[in-house]
Amino acid sequence: MFGTKEHLRVEGSHLFIEDVDTVALAGEFGTPLYVTSESRLRHNIRAYHQAFPEADKYFAVKANGNLATLRILAQEGAGADVFSGGELALARLAGIPREKILFNGNSKSSRELEMAVEAGVRVSVDSPEELSVLGELASWMGKKVEVLFRVNPDVSVKTHPKIATGLRSSKFGIPAPSVAGVFRKALELEGVEPVGLHCHIGSQILDVSSFVEAASRMMDLAGEVLKVGGSIKMIDLGGGLGIQYDPAIKAPVPADLASAVLPVLAGRCGVMGISPRLILEPGRSIVGDTTILLTTVNVVKSAHVTFVGIDAGFNVLARPMLYDSYHHIVVANRAAQAPEAPFTVVGPICETGDVLARDRMLPSVHRGDVLAFFDAGAYGFSMASQYNGQPRPAEVLVHGSQAEVTRRAEDYSALLAGQAVPPRLLW
Ligand code: LLP
User: Fold this and answer.
1) Is the CB of 288 under 6 A from ligand 1?
2) CB 203 within 8 A of CB 159
């Protein structure tokens, strides 16, 4: 019914996720509501294990910081790419072992570097200055930190410009021509042990040839590192594999990525006589399609277009507003009905840009209907805010016919959290 999304189906006239009726979920837990399929999550990480049996998969925690999700991924043997002290804490709490954690970031604070050293995780160093600071800090703390170097490989990819990260103009990484020099410098520092190279060229990439280009640049650089006396124990190719948001567009799967990239790496490593461990950092392709966002229609208004006002805007799902991204919509309580007319679906936020879908063909929509947004598991809740005084929604995990709350909805007290009015203002 929904292509490869085997965890979603229509029964009677309702949308089901695994064996749970989404309309009943909306009734029981209220909306907006993020709902995740455990079986799909396990399926997605296993697809990576199958395609890359030898590689480590470090889940990109920024895509989804839900502890139950992280726990399931830990059970499935995943590691973590963390981009802040907070994400490091989440990964450790979920039980991800420190040897499988890479601390990334282009602007890490001293406190975060200290946390990384203290936790004993590897660090991806983004600049020569960070290398010196980290080296000093680690030797002062009497530790030695294994480091990779984040490379800016200057690879252009076809994706939204805001999520292309490997362009020469992007803020991430050390420019490719300087990498070997920085690596050599690291060999002289007491507190660090340089072990490899890291890149991440962007997100929602649908053409695997970009990854081949990146892999080949990384191998060129590995060659330069060997020449300056370094050794390459790890090559981290980052994340970025796209998913099928729009049913009209095809997306590659981990097996496609593997068959494109692995022969290139094997060939080049063979010639150089090295056998580094491969690391991947998938986020979206692990969690994206596991989760739907349920929302309720508050109002339908005929204007120059027909607006459908729902109870979630870019405060809950920021992606359409930020990247003009497509999320497929199904009217969950009328899921078997054919589309009839175009609707422009908007949120409750006081901004003209708060549009989740423009001129989307849907069955006739009415107040009280439940709209399900597909593929909301990556960068959905994790980018949600309380803008306009909107508490953040709940998250539910579905396992067969079971539905459990993994994060309860905030109430208005969350808007006051941490606030203090100076006493002199009280009178
Ligand atoms: N590794 C690094 C260093 C990253 O910066 C990212 C994502 C990933 C891994 C995971 O990439 P993925 O497999 O999820 O494509 N908020 C945007 C996406 C931002 C991605 C940032 N970096 C969106 O909603 O499309």
Assistant:
1) no
2) yes
Catalytic residue among 303, 338, 350, 420: 350
The response to whether residue 21 sits with its C-beta less than 6 Å from ligand 1 reads no
Integer angstrom CA distances of residue 44 from 54, 367, 395: 17, 35, 19
Residue nearest to atom 23 of ligand 1 (CA): 379
Alpha-carbon distance of 53 to 114, in angstroms, equals 33
Cα(381) to ligand 1 centroid in Å equals: 14
Summarize pLDDT for 48-99 with one digit per residue, the tens. 999 999 999 999 999 999 999 999 999 999 999 999 999 999 999 999 999 9
Provide the whole-model pTM.
Answer: 0.97
Question: Looking at ligand 1, which atom is closest to the CA of residue 204?
Answer: 15
pLDDT tens digit string along 249-285? 999 999 999 999 999 999 999 999 999 999 999 999 9
Distance in angstroms (rounded) separating the CA atoms of residues 200 and 178: 17
Burial (Cβ within 10 Å: 0-12, 13-18, ≥19) of residue 333: buried
166 lines ligand 1 (CB under 6 A): no
Tokens of 342: 């175009």
What SS3 state is found at 339?
A: coil
Q: Which atom of ligand 1 is nearest to the CA of 202?
A: 15
**Active-site annotation holds for 350:** yes
